[in-house]
């Protein structure tokens, strides 16, 4: 089982809540689809009992600081490819819809994980697209994450 979150936007209590949830769910991997914002989020992420991967979002301006404070936890990039349980996964923040659409239609991935819109959305098809919404809760008023079983692609949207 993997945990997926995005758009935490410096909300440390929300990050803490997500970390606690993912630890209780015993996920093997947590993916953050961008807009963590500040390096001080690393102290909360360090409490995860799972591997952690993240990409930069459009609001992640302090990239050198994020890389420094997350050293040993994860390596930030604008885009990541992962393979898990035989499934190819693309992770991107998704600032440009055309790029997200191209990744989904490319036939190269089983799953595309994106953020940016702060809107929880899962589209199933030949390639599954997952946007976990926002962990910060600033725009929607809801702190959301997604649990995904990468083996059978079953998922569960979670409101924290």
From TrEMBL:
A Pfam cross-reference name: Metallophos_2
Known cofactor(s): a divalent metal cation
UniProt key word Metal-binding: yes
E.C. number(s) listed in UniProt: 3.1.4.-
UniProt keywords, alphabetically: Metal-binding
Source taxon at top rank: Archaea
InterPro entries: Calcineurin-like_PHP_lpxH, Metallo-depent_PP-like, MetalloPDE_YfcE-like, MPP_YfcE, Phosphodiesterase_MJ0936/Vps29
SUPFAM superfamilies registered for this protein in UniProt: Metallo-dependent phosphatases (SSF56300)
GO molecular function (one): metal ion binding
Entry keyword Metal-binding: yes
Domain Calcineurin-like phosphoesterase: 2-151
Family: Belongs to the metallophosphoesterase superfamily. YfcE family.
Protein name: Phosphoesterase
